[in-house]
Amino acid sequence: MAHTLExxxxxxxxYLATLPVTRWIDIAGETxxxxxxxxxxxxxxxxxxxxxxxxxxxxxxxxxIDEGRCQWxxxxxxxxxxxxxxxxxxxxxxxxxxxxxxxxxxxxxxxxQQIDIYEFRDSKIEHLRQVSAAPEPIWKNTQSFDxxxxxxxLASPLx
Length: 159
Hints:
11% of the residues lie in helices and 31% in strands. By secondary structure, it is mostly beta strands.
């Protein structure tokens, strides 16, 4: 499975070029923005800041939050499963399907507000746990990131 542009065939690159950068979906009374980065910024990312990585803010995301256009933004550019709660919107980074950084996937149940987390291990799919998809808002927007975030573990099993 390809994980970088260099791994893709010309026909795969042609196919990817036909896909939209974003997709807005209305389902179960919720609006979801699907994108790789942040909206039209395909390679943009955000990170609240932790002891391992400094904060990365994004004005485009702040604008989306302020507009209240969606309740969910689901992206994947970080390749690290993450749940970030803002006032009025939750960002869910889907992680990665391949590679050495906890490949797997998540399912989001909008009605029950639950996320089921799965990882690929030894050619099997392992259900790691279920977490609430509706945590208390932590931030107003990315400008309120303080660099003191303790990420919710959405990858690798708890010990």
